[in-house]
Automatic annotation (TrEMBL):
InterPro entries: Stig-like. Residues 1-22 form the signal peptide. It holds the Pfam family Stig1. The keyword Ribosomal protein does not apply. Keywords: Signal. The lineage of its organism: Bacteria, Pseudomonadati, Myxococcota, Myxococcia, Myxococcales. PROSITE patterns: PROKAR_LIPOPROTEIN. It comes from the Bacteria. SUPFAM superfamilies: YWTD domain (SSF63825). It comes from Myxococcus virescens. This is Stigma-specific protein, Stig1.
Length: 538
């Protein structure tokens, strides 16, 4: 099941309006006198990503050799291969370099998993003098000689990225290979993608501007293979929940829950979805996210300032025992919790995200004061709901580590919470963050915080060109969190261990394998780059 990717519309409205306008200012296709969107350059009559395009690596026309990929504008051997005598080879299957460069197999033998053998074992296919698993071999994916491009992985005989991030400001998608944490080239996609999900090798992207649910194959991020209407009215589709054969989408502006069903390919190579119903959850409820527990959907209701939040600060329960006839059962209030307000000031729960586990349903609480610029006025918190009784208890995530609790997801028997923090924005500099505190991740085990990870920018705040990082949403792949940065467009990679959060790509630890990934780079024209969501495909 794909996890939800919520978005609160009101607290972040200024930034989202700015980035929405910015995303529409430039197009992805150059014309005479025009420029490409951020991170892309004009080569001939096309906009290309010089940092990741094998045909234009670092410069227009600089083509990488066979078996190479382009990383940060430099040609190098693709993951799964290594340089042997000036060529990139797969030592797991290359008969002339079996297991190591120069280790040639004797005549009549084949190379399988880096070992010379007389023949292929069961489950392997002979491709030339090599035995390969075409279900997983990036050089023979699905068939002999079918090479996966750039940093794509072969899963069940199909090439695709492991992780995909959406760049809201620039209207782009970018793929990431899990484990190696290498970036693929950026691709133009949609006009206002706001949230992502994945299903059966496809990326599902809710486009707020077009009011459509767009689909792309996991290995061809620049091509829309299917589009389905999201009600036809522009709104704020915050969250996609995949529960085969159904897909659920909530919209916080239109207050709707839409149900789509997969009925087989009907538009090219897409999944073949059709809307079976759409229900209104109530005026001014502003539904944020979705989680399924049994046959019930749990939907955090943020509420709206225009109604003084009287229809929010709660969680709706929707019966989907018949998914094609969803029925709102009741609403669980969150206002009775001790929110630990700072200095006894005003604070509201204002729920943001939700995750369902065997032990209960967990709802993240932003704890903001909507009457004072939506500033945090209490620690980031989780509300735990007992599905059987409906009772609610609170978990304090600690104000020093977490303000403005955002996206939450279960990782094994632990919970990871993204803390959006408290940020100050410089309107004179494109509404970019000028100061940030208590933004990062918190790890929760046995209903108590056990570890925290603070986002850092790798530069001194206030220095020219220093773009601070503000946590957004994340995806989990191969035991690591891929955390999006809503201000500087980065993706941080943090491994989740038992009771520990270990930085793999970022600026906080000298033991990190490298800096945070520049997934959605900023430029002088757009100091803000909103990496708005991340989804894992495998």
């Amino acid at each position: 099941m794909t996890r939800p990717r919520p978005l609160s519309p009101e607290p972040f409205l200024p930034t989202l309006l700015l980035t929405a306008v910015a995303a529409l200012l430039l197009t992805g296709c150059p014309e005479e006198g025009a420029v490409c969107t951020s991170g892309l350059s004009v080569c001939g009559d096309a906009c290309v990503d010089l940092s990741g395009d094998v045909a234009n690596c670092g410069a227009c026309g600089n083509t990488c050799g066979d078996g190479q990929t382009c990383q940060a504008g430099v040609c190098d051997c693709r993951p799964g291969t290594e340089a042997c005598g000036g060529a990139c080879v797969a030592t797991a299957s290359d008969v002339a370099n079996c297991g190591a460069c120069g280790n040639a197999c004797a005549a009549g033998l084949v190379c399988e998993s880096g070992v010379c053998r007389e023949g292929c074992s069961e489950g392997s296919l002979r491709c030339g003098d090599s035995c390969v698993d075409v279900r997983a071999d990036v050089l023979n994916c699905g068939a002999c000689g079918n090479v996966c491009p750039d940093v794509q992985t072969c899963h069940e005989g199909r090439c695709g990225y492991d992780v995909v991030a959406a760049c809201y400001t620039h209207g782009q998608l970018v793929g990431i290979q899990a484990g190696t944490d290498q970036l693929g080239p950026r691709r133009q996609f949609g006009s206002g993608v706001q949230t992502l999900a994945s299903w059966d090798g496809h990326v599902l992207a809710a486009d707020a501007t077009a009011s459509k649910l767009l689909q792309a194959a996991g290995g061809a991020l620049g091509t829309v293979v299917e589009e389905d209407s999201l009600g036809g009215v522009a709104g704020s589709p915050n969250d996609i929940l995949v529960d085969p054969p159904y897909v659920y989408v909530v919209d916080s502006v239109n207050n709707t829950l839409q149900v789509l069903k997969r009925e087989g390919p009907s538009q090219g190579a897409g999944l073949g979805l059709r809307t079976v119903t759409q229900v209104n959850l109530g005026a001014n409820t502003s539904p944020q996210a979705l989680a399924k527990w049994g046959t019930t959907l749990y939907v955090p209701l943020f509420g709206t300032g225009g109604s003084m939040f009287q229809f929010g600060n709660a969680v709706a329960r929707v019966d989907i025992s018949n998914p094609e006839q969803p029925r709102k059962v009741d609403t669980i209030s969150l206002t009775g919790l001790d929110l630990k307000p700072f200095d006894g000031g005003t604070v509201l729960p204002l729920p943001y995200s939700v995750a369902a586990t065997e032990s209960g349903v967990y709802v993240s609480l932003t704890n903001l004061n909507p009457y004072n610029g939506y500033k945090p006025n209490g620690p980031g918190m989780l509300a735990k709901i007992d599905p059987a009784s409906g009772s609610v208890s609170a978990i304090d995530l600690g104000a020093a580590d977490c303000l403005n609790a955002g996206y939450v997801e279960a990782v094994g028997d632990q919970l990871v919470v993204a803390c959006l923090g408290e940020a100050e924005y410089d309107e004179a500099n494109g509404h970019s963050a000028s100061a940030v505190r208590a933004s990062g991740l918190v790890l929760v085990k046995n209903d108590a915080p056990v570890a925290a990870y603070a986002l850092k920018a790798g530069c001194e705040p206030g220095t020219p060109g220093c773009n601070l990082s503000v946590a957004s949403r994340f995806a989990v792949a191969e035991g690591a969190v891929y955390l999006a940065d809503t201000n500087a467009g980065r993706v941080f990679v943090v491994a989740v261990e038992d009771g520990r959060l270990v930085e793999r790509r970022g600026f906080s630890s000298p033991q990190a394998l490298g800096p945070a990934l520049e997934a959605c780079p900023t430029d002088p024209r757009r100091p803000v780059s909103n990496a708005i969501d991340v989804t894992a495909l495998h």
